[in-house]
Amino acid sequence: MKEDDAKLWGSSPPPPPPLPPIKPGDEFKVTDSDGQEHILVATNETRERLLNRIAKDIVGNLIFTTNHIRQGDEKLLGMIFLPILLGGASSKPHIETLAAGGMIYEYYDKAAPRGINGYPIFYSCYTMGAEETKMVWEKITRIQKAIERATK
Question: For 121-142, what is each residue's pLDDT tens digit?
Fold first, then answer.
């Protein structure tokens, strides 16, 4: 083994520096699934639109969240969201966010073909902080009340 290889494999690399906060006006270059590049610009509305879409998609039964897990079935969290079970240290932020009042979620169309105890299984997932989770559930309550009023 070369000395450089020993240095490379002998110790773990330092953690990456934290990402800077996103501010309105920040630009991001993204590539879509067709290979086309796009420039996205962060705005204050971006967060609000995203939370609105997530709330609508939860009401429309397009998204499964940790809030859908029945009491007593919490032990299945890692089997439902496999990145939590298999992620090792990388799953720690998901668990910390959940413990702080956030939620973990994923779109049903990303579910594996099999399930466990009536729950879907996902190979990917998203995490939402406590503040955003609270905002989404408030939006869901308003949407559900509007549906009730419209269907009376």
Answer: 999 888 888 888 999 999 999 9
